[in-house]
Amino acid sequence: MKAFRHAIWITLLISHLPVTAQKKSTSLPVYKDSSAPVEQRVTDLLQRMTTEEKVGQLSTLLGWEMYTKKRNKVTESDAFRKAIKEQHIGMLWATLRADPWTKKTLETGLNPELAAKATNAMQKYAIEETRLGIPLLLSEECPHGHMAIGTTVFPTSIGQSSTWNPELIKEMATVIAEEARLQGGHIGYGPVLDLAREPRWSRVEETYGEDPVLNSRMGEAMVLGFQGDDLKSGYNLISTLKHFAAYGVPEGGHNGNAVHAGTRELQHSYLPPFKAAVNAGALSVMTAYSSIDGVPSTANHWLLNGLLRNEWNFDGFVVSDLGSIEGLSGNHHLAGTFPEAAALAINAGVDADLGGKGYGTHLLKALKSGEVSENILNTAVRRILRLKFEMGLFENPYVDPAKAKKEVRSRKHIALARKVARESVTLLKNQENILPLSKDIKSIAVIGPNADNIYNQLGDYTAPQAEDNIVTVLEGIKDKVPPATKVTYVKGCAIRDTTQIDIAGAVQAAKQAEVAVVVLGGSSARDFKTKYIDTGAATIGPDTGTGIISDMESGEGYDRSTLHLLGKQTELLRAIVETGTPTILILIKGRPLLLNWPSENVPAILDAWYPGQEGGNAIADVLFGDYNPSGKLPISVPKSVGQLPVYYNALFPVKHNYVEEDAKPLYSFGHGLSYTDFRYEGLTVTVDESENDVTVNIKFRIKNTGPRDGDEVAQLYLRDDVSSVVTPQKQLKAFKKVHLRAGEEKTLEFRLKARDMMLWNTRREWVTEAGTFSLMIGASSEDIRLNSSFEISRNIKIHNP
Question: 0.90 cut: is pTM over it?
């Protein structure tokens, strides 16, 4: 009877529980309970997984092989089903990527609507056809637009930083994230935070230039734009910082080669942009191919654990660059076998394997042999699973194809691409105010290999484009002038190839025109004849079938030994200038090139880098004065390769001149002219010291003294006059872009704190040292308009810098 009464009591108790509680107690695993804390869900799922399933979660396979397209229908591929069943994969990379390397064209690749359907199909299979139903994380290339068909193409990063406008770049990053997320992406690769102090290096275009402070502000903007305030929004991406660390200064400019940098140089120059981006909330970091002081980044325990996680409190995940785990064996010769390489990487703190060939069976062997512990594996898997829960993928793994079709590459996004491109254009020279041009001009000769070439103005990591997506310089000029204006186009020559020449035709066109606009530079445009290594970097060589050399001279894998304009470009430019027709040089390129002769002989020079899909309109806006140029160089332009390195913030002592030339760049960091003039005046500096900090308040006025409205970038530089370790001759500390109407004056304020003046001393401590600091404010690192100094009375130790 007692047992009977007890059973009745239990039945009554259950009957009075809420329905949801009853279901949870009987059928719903904790990891599928959206109301449970994320860490509990991760722990519950982890303990249900086999070792093979855990290892699979760390594999990021090449995604473009994972769908099958037949006309307007798309499904998951056999390769995908096999990878799910046999490898238990948890991530894909570049699923929607289209370019010559992936062999995805406008016909074989996916438009935004089909892309959304493809990622939905893959998620559905991963969730419904596996034991635990874990959704995928899809990583996409997003440096200057989502690298997929039908998306908006912005200027490459070197152009983005030429805007010196972090708020604009944040707005751009928000759009890039939205377009990728609407198609099913979750992780955006970017920003690239490598300092570009070696212009021979092929990937300068992917960077924000040579300076840690400018790079930091741009990196923060990208992270904040990508990730937003809510990863579950359906519009935001996880940001992956590239490439950790010091990848941009390889020996001899050879992509991926060894880096020779001391620990203090790392701390002062190469690490701050990454630290700033981590502080901004970045949730993913990618290792570099290169080694630092003999230790490859993908096996650098101090870099990935001691610094990134323990000192910086980074709580996201680390992913290898493509093939860099295997590279510990095949390239760096650090490991004798691939299982040893897998052990080195995961023990150093690499959580995810980009490419899927570094971990997998090799990691399983390392686990079996005891080289890797189960605890290390669980830690890595936990980091991946945590983000899947934080993005809400277990509840909302799918996207809306109709929404992707409607919102990707909208008119608003295209307008923003034009705005970013416009602000990136930098006026290097404007002799006798030849610019802006009058729209009443009767005839224009538009000349050069980059005047009407779609792909040459887009940069590397760009998908195939429908022709009407892109506005070239020729098209931009034609759209700007009246129908009666005669616009004559002659290509004249190619970028590299010397068999495609029509200099005579270009000269004839220039002689018959009031002005000649010559568009030269470089190209990162890949074509389907280019050969690639396993990492996707291009290999250099002529087309053996036709004998015609491609234009590509920049972009991953295309390192240079010189920085001259290649092919017959200089010969073409000289011939045009010699006609006597006023000549304007427009540069479209991915790295600084030697411009000594143009600087001496061409009246006006505009640098547009790779300006993206709206480049032609943006350049025309500047040419004809509808936009007053405001770009500033984020990297120095050398006079010769023999000067390298030539970045502005070199350490003391001051460089002396060479026998052949001086040591100064042709155009300095921060340089950029306007169609108006700005006067700086009224500098005041006050110092307020507290027990653990100092505040330096700086005020000054800028007045637009010219005839046009314009934007100026005021730049603040600092020099530590006497310090316990060698410091830079000058270092950018703050900048502000301000719009001023003709005749308008504004007061600008900067505020520096102790951490802005800190150094890493001989005790390996961050400290702001007592002493005098020289303050310089101006329009570039060389064009200093205001000078002052201030003093700090005592040393201030900086905690958690």
Answer: yes
